[in-house]
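tool_call predict_complex ligand=magnesium ion
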Amino acid sequence: LPRSVSGIQATSDSLHLGNYIGALQQFVEHQEHHDAFYFIANMHAITVEQDPAELRERTLRTAAQFIAAGIDPERSTIFVQSHVDAHPKLSWILECTTGLGEAQRMTQFKDKSAKKENVSLGLLTYPALMAADILLYQADVVPVGEDQRQHLELTRNLAERFNHRYGATFTVPEAGILKETAKIYDLQDPTSKMSKSAANPAGLINILDEPKALTKKFKSAVTDNDTVIAFDPEAKPGVSNLLTIYSALTGDSVDSIVAEYEGKMYGHLKVGLAEIAVEKLAPVRERTLELLDDRAELERILLAGADKAQAIADETVRVAYERVGFLHR
Ligand code: ATP
Ligand code: MG
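tool_result ok
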């Protein structure tokens, strides 16, 4: 089976609808026909300041949301990044394979560092750790949102560069980015990516929001002064974002949704979408809360996942160490 590998940062209590549509839905789909590895990226999380108790809690909450969304720990390997030492080991080698200018050109680094007074070195080297996360498992495909395309491209370059310099070591992975749903926008600011670190919480749909809160956020989504429901991301970013979300959650084409709402008002679309989102997300919320009632079981799943991940990752590190000329121990 081809291998699918991806992760989500433990940077919030709840994942949001962008994570759900851009990443989690694909993870669930991939597990049908891939050997899948999904991890909670707690090491990436500390590239910006985190409260330790909160980080620990969010790591478990994120794991619970993975499973609640449909990732089956019997079929897919779910683990915590920091449980597998191979990640920082290979990351170091890849940092030494990456140019400083190359790292500085990453838009995520530019965006995240522009907003900060104290920029950590880890924020700059983030893409090398991400490349390690992927290359350790010889991933064939990496399901992510559009915002990670540039990091994926760098990962591919690093794999090729290393292979060229030291001999074939890493599989060069493909980006698993679904064109239509790869970028979900903030409901209050539909030209900005929906993000955990959103400026306005009203624009952020959390998968653990209560149904009432979800409905309220959809109803107050920013649209435009026009009245026609049409898909036009340039001229009508708000309505187009709602149509994208609607399509991603139902599997219906945008065209068929536009046809269904022909002659209706924005309010109808918002209410219809709110109902669909509640139907989809309320069970995920309930299942997450149930899973969080049995933390020992969650921890057991994560430790079993770490064992499976480690066996593969350690072998890749062994080969990489050999290739770069590190002395046998
Ligand atoms: P942060 O603001 O802390 O970076 P984030 O919301 O970007 O958080 P990540 O953990 O960095 O979340 O990303 C996890 C996955 O979710 C990645 O694959 C990323 O591409 C995807 N993703 C994040 N935001 C969106 C979005 N708005 N639309 C589609 N996919 C998204
Ligand atoms: Mg992010």
